[in-house]
Structures are given as C-alpha cells and as structure tokens.
C-alpha cells in the first residue's frame, strides 16, 4: 500500500501542525504505520510508529513528548500531531506501512532506520521558522 502524507506547511518555532497519512481506497486498520522524515542533507529517519492491531506506539527520542500519533479507522487515516516544533523538525515527512512492531524501542529504532518500502509515497514538507 502506497501511502500519502499531507498537511505540512510553514509554522513558527514552538507552533503546531497535524499531518495526515492515507491511501484512498485502502483499509489501513490492520497495518502498522510509521512516520519518517528527511531533512536536507540528512538520511531519512523513522520517528514514530503505531501498531496495527492494538495501536501501541513507538516514538523516537527526538520527538517523544512533543509528537503524538493516532489513527481513525473510520477514515482510514493516521495522524501525526506535532507540537512545540523546533527548527530541527524542518524536513519532508513521509508515512509508510511497515511489517513489524515491537515494544522494544531499540528494535524499532534499528528496524525503522533500515526500512525501505517498495515505493515511498508523496511526502509533505514541514518548515519551522524562527
């Protein structure tokens, strides 16, 4: 399933944005969905993941306490609420379904760090201005 991220934009330091992840016509409620981001000149990094069956959630340390993930199965959409945005959050954000989830944060960080889907869907640009 190729997912599309949307909802990015220009936001001031300390502001908030909510990103959406969807695949029109596809049922996402049993899929683990992860959020990734790629800043200019940097490698893509996995920042969060919500499991498919019981909505357990992983957060990378860089976003823990500021970002939150949720899903609305009635809309086949996963959301990434981003609060207290920092300049280092400036990046293109992507979402993708992943074939794994673990309560072990170390495992999730490694797995998301090496995950490559068949195709990356359209990302959405988030720019945090000071």
Give an overview of the whole structure.
- It is a single chain.
- This protein is 8% helix and 42% strand.
- The longest helix is centred in the last third of the chain and has 10 residues, at 105-114.
- The protein is globular, with a radius of gyration of 13 Å.
- Strand 5 and strand 6 (57-59) form a beta hairpin.
- It has one helix spanning 105-114, and strands at 4-6, 9-12, 17-22, 32-38, 45-50, 57-59, 67-72, 77-82, 91-98, 124-129.
- The model has no long low-confidence stretch (mean pLDDT 94).
- The chain is mainly beta.
By DSSP (H or I, 4+ residues per run), the number of helices equals 1
Mean pLDDT: 94
- The percentage helix is under 10%
SSE succession: EEEEEEEEEHE
Query: Between the first and last Cα atoms, what is the distance in angstroms?
Result: 36 Å
Secondary structure: number of strands: 10
Task: Note the main sheet.
Answer: 6 strands, mixed
Spans with pLDDT under 50 lasting ≥5 residues? none
- Order of neighbouring strands in the sheet with most strands: 2-10-9-4-5-6
Q: Measured on Cα atoms, how large is the radius of gyration? A: 13 Å
- What fraction strand? 35-45%
User: What is the 3D form?
Assistant: globular
